[in-house]
Amino acid sequence: MSAADWYAHKSLGDGLFWIQERFYQSDNRANIWLLRGSHQDVVIDTGLGLRSLPDYIDSKGLLGKDPQRKNPLLAIATHAHFDHSGGLHQFQQVGVHSAEVDALANGDNFETVTWLSDREIAERPSPGWRARNYKVKAVQPTHILQEGDVINLGDRQLTVLHMPGHSRGSICLHDRDNKLLFSGDVVYDGSMIDWLPYSQVSDYISSCERLVGLVDSEQVDQVLPGHYNTFGAKRLHRIASSYISRAGTCPAKFSTLTWRTLAGFALRMSNPHCAC
């Protein structure tokens, strides 16, 4: 299967594109965001990496034909989990938060929580392909990101917000001028996951408090999340506030501990050679 068949995209205007993997039919299917700038273009999260995302972007002409543009496309992972980082190895420039650099450089399929089944792939990307052979390929990040870093695209800037909880290196990218928040898995319109290896409920509560603060200070109008559909500031406030209220209860803490134990066991069984 070609890259042109594997992916599909939708233009949201103003140099922003929403890309998805058509045949990865799972709640784990991540949104891939492509944002064009006057001097630098960025792709935010890269999916599984089963087909070439750069080839798709090029074949569809999503970056245009500006002869003055010399900077290679920068791929940023909002965090290291497999559904967001699997395609990073396809790019010359790769950015991730410092807390998850080693996981990507070592191809650590425990920390990237690599968990894929045949039933999630509606059409195999190549003859004989099997999910059990899928692994996140090691990649050495070229851009090691920290809280407050600014990614300059020329006519727009993205500020790195370190928002741990879902994973230790989870980030949001905030376009302050346009009040856009690329939120990865820090927040989306669904059940937020805080029970994976390296998840931390106390960190997640703090991150959600920051999200509420962004809404209260009118710094966000639209959220472009790692999964599902986009949503606005009121919904962001409601989701983040609900998590804060729920996460502190005893039943929620017990459930988190149980699921973390089960998830860790399952990941060790599926990735027996990981350093975990």
From TrEMBL:
<feature type="domain" description="Metallo-beta-lactamase">
    <location>
        <begin position="29"/>
        <end position="227"/>
    </location>
</feature>
<dbReference type="InterPro" id="IPR050855">
    <property type="entry name" value="NDM-1-like"/>
</dbReference>
<dbReference type="Pfam" id="PF00753">
    <property type="entry name" value="Lactamase_B"/>
</dbReference>
<protein>
    <submittedName>
        <fullName>LysM, putative peptidoglycan-binding, domain containing 3</fullName>
    </submittedName>
</protein>
<dbReference type="InterPro" id="IPR001279">
    <property type="entry name" value="Metallo-B-lactamas"/>
</dbReference>
<dbReference type="InterPro" id="IPR036866">
    <property type="entry name" value="RibonucZ/Hydroxyglut_hydro"/>
</dbReference>
